[in-house]
Amino acid sequence: MTETDVKICASHVSKVFTGGCHFIKVLDDISFSIQTGEFVAILGPSGCGKSTLLNMVADLEPCKEGNIIVNEYHTDQPERHRMMMFQEAALFPWYNVLSNVVYGLRFKKGLTNAERKTIASYYLRMVGLGHFERAYIHELSGGMKQRVALARALAPNPQMLLMDEPFSALDALTCEHLYKDVQKIWNMQHKTILLVTHNVREAVVLAQRVIVLSQRPGKILKDFPIQLPYPRSVHDVSVSALANELTHVLHVKGDDDYASCI
Amino acid sequence: MKYRLLCLDLNVVKSLLKKIAYLFAVLCIWQFLYVLGGCSDLIFPTPIQVVSFLWHACADGTLMSATWITIKRLILGYSVSVLIGIPMGILCSRFYILNAFVGKLVLGLQTLPSICWVPLTLLWFGQTDRAILFVVTMGSLWSLIASTESSVRQIPSLYIKAAHTMGSRGVDLWLTVIFPAALPSIITGMKQSWAFAWRSLMSAEIYVSTIGGLGIGQLLHYGREMQAMDQVMGIIFVIIAIGLIAEKVLFANVERILHKRWGFIKSSN
Ligand SMILES: Nc1ncnc2c1ncn2[C@@H]1O[C@H](COP(=O)(O)OP(=O)(O)OP(=O)(O)O)[C@@H](O)[C@H]1O
Ligand SMILES: [Mg+2]
After folding, report:
1. How far apart are CA B203 and CA B124, in angstroms?
2. Chain A partners within 8 Å of B166 (Cβ)
3. Which pTM value belongs to this model?
4. Is A85 in the pocket of ligand 1 (CB under 6 A)?
5. Residues B206, B253: one domain?
6. What value of ipTM does the predicted structure carry?
7. CATH of domain A35-62+159-262
8. Mean pLDDT along residues A65-93
9. Which residue among A144, A197, A249, B238 is the one 20 to 30 A from A42 at the CA level?
């Protein structure tokens, strides 16, 4: 791999929130780099600063200590080559499903409105919601909403996809379907994907590499490569074995951290 | 298809009949109380007197013209409130300094009953239509500013974050995300402000007798002056009817559309 293949490069990133008269150190000296086309998961316990880290990569949160370089540029504004999926679907209820997907395409140059609609409905069909173009958001189930959010994030054909626990509110069966969808899409388009999750199996099923964070303040405990062939399923024995191993890492190192806190 | 239409018709007829029966029962009780109480017509008119007043007032056109004048005043005064109040509320939510400055003022003026403006407005504008419009606007403007400001401030930040990552900024962000997200709650504020405007107008019309024409409130006032209790009662019914119709025609439809789109549970009806 050459230098130019690095898509996201974080070096010595720390983050402190000041609330009133107290400080919360959320992230502690995080450094990692992600190659173009790589699928990386950030795994960590709840409240360890995963969302904060992802928001910093998406430039929704300022990065004061350390720096994050995305696509070889110092970033200062969220752009369309980075799309983000949130914990909740964050769809706009005043638009219907199709218009929600079109929304992300409005700033793409050189497209007519008709072309935007065609692209949007193509991605809706890809996530299996071709028949729901005219539906309103409140008429969809939670899983369908996340699918629309996925289509909306994919439609502008971003180079990079940032996902913040997009499946954490869904049932196991829906999750399995979406895991398949995401693997399929990643195989087809080879985007750089950064997925934040607290679900060990989810990380193992999807990612090529798992970065394990500790309890708050989040430090990198381990950078864990997953060398299993795609497509993977949550039911694979090898996936379970690796998930166990990762859980062990989280527990052992995490408990050490607890001990040092006390 | 034909059958279903018939069913629908039957249901409508049934509910209409029910309403008429209900009304009739109320009138009967009213007449009964009149007979029972034995008070004079000056204090307690019979339903027949009230209905005949309404009939005559309709026939000679005074009721229609008064209603028209009142509604014109209401729409004019309320429009001024909306045209000032909503932009002002949005500006307040946007600029912290403006909010710190205007917010307190709004809070104070909002608690002032609108009838308290009447002495002031009489001194400023005299017995004119402008005096009435001023009271209506003062009565409805402040609550609209306050509710618009809080509607905009309370929209989920997630919407804004999502729009940001998709490249929406500035005016575009306001038009496509912030304003639509706040709209249902702005409409609720507008509805409340409309109710305030209507109450203020009635107070103003009762106290300010203008050369600009007789409104409903003024008819009510003169009814008292002439000790015409049937007129007072009749006008009260007209006032209730106008309030109800405005609510049903204006806001019920808007809320139905919002409900269909935004999909939240509607509290009333
Ligand atoms: N704007 C903020 N101001 C102050 N503290 C904050 C802010 N945002 C987050 N925090 C704190 O930072 C810590 C990490 O938050 P973050 O949302 O990044 O956690 P997370 O790892 O995504 O957790 P989860 O898995 O539950 O989503 C939390 O303890 C929270 O209290
Ligand atoms: Mg989070």
Report:
1. 17
2. 80, 83, 103-104, 106-107, 152, 156
3. 0.81
4. no
5. yes
6. 0.84
7. 3.40.50.300
8. 77
9. A144
